[in-house]
Design a protein that fits this description.
Radius of gyration: 28 Å
Helix content: 10-25%
Number of domains: 1
Number of helices: 1
Structural class: alpha+beta
Strand content: 25-35%
Largest sheet: 5 strands, antiparallel
């Protein structure tokens, strides 16, 4: 009895190896592209967040200046290197480029209005609930539950200035967003910080905004 044999067809080992190699390359390229897209999204989100926070801080300062009859007082540096801007009984406590502080900038109401630099003392921003504990003498206590954090968890103040007098004030702020101070650089003879390191998925962002606020006439 004659048996008929069909010729078996299929891929050779070499063809399978080539196909697997091509597939691996395609997967590697796809992963690289997706990682790049994710990185760009993260970078854009960081920049948007720091821009929005800067804008909100400037708007708060402008509004408080506009509707206050009190002078704007900018404190000297305290024991903890925190500083403050006081407008009547409104206080903005902040720390310059300090990555160890719990908060970068904190707004609260004092129990009475500051009328001199010695009374405009920053709260201790190294505490989960900022208070006068551990600050320079003369710190005015906060009205209970009046405080709020004005910046994100990885944001720090590069600079914050309110300059002027009588009715017109110039406000400028530099807010930076990054998990490590080594991500930023400050060129010689410059008061501003810039992003210097954006390795991996850890991106930094810098927002620099300024405006002019005019106190309304009585």
């Amino acid at each position: 009895m004659n048996r008929l044999y069909k010729k078996q067809t299929g891929f050779t080992i070499m063809e399978l190896m080539i196909a697997i190699s091509v597939l691996s390359i395609i997967l590697m390229i796809s992963a690289y592209v997706l990682t790049g897209i994710g990185g760009l999204y993260s970078k854009g989100t960081n920049y948007s967040n720091v821009q929005n926070a800067s804008r909100n801080i400037i708007q708060d300062l402008s509004s408080d200046i506009q509707f206050s009859n009190s002078p704007v007082i900018q404190s000297a540096t305290s024991i903890n290197h925190d500083q403050a801007i006081c407008i009547g009984n409104i206080r903005y406590s902040y720390t310059i480029f300090n990555f160890s502080s719990v908060y970068a900038i904190w707004k609260d109401q004092m129990t009475y209005a500051a009328n001199s630099p010695s009374q405009c003392v920053s709260l201790n921003l190294n505490q989960a609930s900022p208070s006068c504990t551990g600050t320079s003498p003369g710190c005015i206590a906060s009205v209970p539950n009046s405080g709020e954090n004005l910046a994100g968890p990885n944001m720090r103040v590069g600079q914050l200035n309110v300059i002027g007098g009588f009715r017109i004030y110039s406000i400028s702020i530099e807010l930076i967003d990054g998990i490590d101070k080594n991500m930023f650089t400050k060129p010689p003879n410059s008061s501003l910080y810039y992003c210097s390191n954006q390795s991996g998925q850890q991106y930094c962002a810098v927002s620099i905004l300024s405006t002019v606020a005019a106190r309304r006439l009585d």
